[in-house]
Write a structure and sequence with these properties.
Layout (H helix, E strand, L loop, with lengths): L4 H7 L6 H8 L4 H22 L10 E4 L15 E4 L2 E2 L4 E8 L2 E7 L27 H5 L10 H9 L13
Antiparallel strand pairs: 1-2, 2-3, 4-5
Helix pairs in contact: 2-3
Keywords: Transferase
Family: Belongs to the P-Pant transferase superfamily. AcpS family.
GO molecular function: holo-[acyl-carrier-protein] synthase activity; magnesium ion binding
Amino acid sequence: GSGSIPNFFHIMKRQFTETEWDVIKSMSNEWMQLDMFYRHWALKESFLKAIGVGIGFNLQRIEFNVSPLHLEIGKVYKETKMLLDGEKEEEWTFEETRLDDDHHVAVALGKQEGFVQKNSDVQSMEPNQPQFTLLTFEDLVASGIPITPEDSAYWDNFCSKQEAPVKQSSHSR
């Protein structure tokens, strides 16, 4: 947004542990710090999605020890470890990859049914398998079928609307 990276970090302070902030802030410049922030965020989000809870979960309960510090684009890493309430979680694996210079992906693999099941049947991807396929908008809609016939008048009407509402003056009634 329009704020500075330090202001953004201040707002997000409670979402990470002191150890995680130490790693984030250890990066050599603000953009690399932001990059490490988003890597941690992707890991936390992957865990929350895997256990099926929302962002109301206290994110300081989970701490990630990322390894290695720098991810090579296209390579899958499984070295990052998670602590839950200060204890290492051995049954969870996190697969991370970097899609490009701006995008991290993290997938949580581990216990199912919100911590209940002891033996996980989750299959990890083999290193030589293609990991991700980047799709364009056209790829995604290529097989789409319109639910109604195209109405050019509707589109023209939509395009003629102002992009932002006009503030009405207090004098006109």
